[in-house]
Amino acid sequence: MIRFIAAIDEKRGIADDSGIPWQGRIPSDVAYFRKKTTNSNIMMGTGWYREQEKPLPNRRNLVATTSVERLRDGFEKVPDARKYLAETKEDIWVGGGAGLFASTIDLADELYITQLQGDFHCTKFFPDFRAQFVLTEESEPYTENGISYTFQVWKRA
Ligand SMILES: NC(=O)c1ccc[n+]([C@@H]2O[C@H](COP(=O)([O-])OP(=O)(O)OC[C@H]3O[C@@H](n4cnc5c(N)ncnc54)[C@H](OP(=O)(O)O)[C@@H]3O)[C@@H](O)[C@H]2O)c1
Q1: pTM for the whole thing?
Q2: What CATH number is associated with residue 49?
Q3: Which residues form the pocket of ligand 1, taking CB atoms under 6 Å from any ligand atom?
Q4: Domain hosting residue 29, numbered range
Q5: What Cα–Cα distance (Å) separates residue 124 from each residue in 45, 81, 82, 100, 135?
Q6: What is the pLDDT of residues 111-120, one digit of tens each?
Q7: How many structural domains comprise the chain?
Q8: Coil, strand, or helix at residue 73?
Q9: Which of 16, 39, 69, 137 would disulfide-bridge 153, Cβ 3.0–4.6 Å?
Q10: How far is the centre of ligand 1, averaged over its atoms, from the C-alpha of 117 (Å)?
Q11: Which of 5, 1, 2 has the alpha carbon at shortest distance from 152?
Q12: For residues 16 and 14, what is the distance between their CA atoms, to the nearest angstrom?
């Protein structure tokens, strides 16, 4: 199963030029991400990889990149993310960022979306997915540090 996992604002924004604008303000979303992806495989693009200080623990850290540059220890290179996702028999969580989401969303079975209220003036966006997926689960609304959000699961229509 190929699952995407992302927190998005109401304009589908996921990051600005400095990273994730709500970083550190929604600990429950970090815990949700950790719970979903631990003991599994997480795939990231090089943009997000460069922001990681170290590999995400207790997960196989796959990095989609066409570059020949060596990755740091604990990260595994995937030169063609589309081919990898199309052929794997394993469960993969695709964790972003925007470039990786855009290049592979047609291969996703499910989307785990933390839907934030508000516009965080992002410059990087999650692809438009609502015509291809249906909302199958949504949590009650939560508010943390002034940010309101729900956890949603979307399945391919
Ligand atoms: N809100 C959220 O949930 C969330 C989640 C994750 C990340 N983010 C944020 O998103 C931002 C990064 O996004 P981004 O768009 O700049 O970068 P990105 O998606 O992390 O990385 C893009 C790079 O990934 C590689 N790539 C993408 N598709 C590929 C494919 N099909 N096969 C092989 N390689 C592929 C390419 O690297 P090469 O150029 O090396 O070939 C491409 O330049 C960060 O600020 C991060 O914090 C937000």
Answers
A1: 0.98
A2: 3.40.430.10
A3: 6-7, 14-15, 19-20, 44-48, 51, 64-67, 80-82, 95-100, 103-104, 124
A4: 2-156
A5: 13, 20, 20, 11, 23
A6: 999 999 999 9
A7: 1
A8: coil
A9: 137
A10: 23
A11: 5
A12: 7
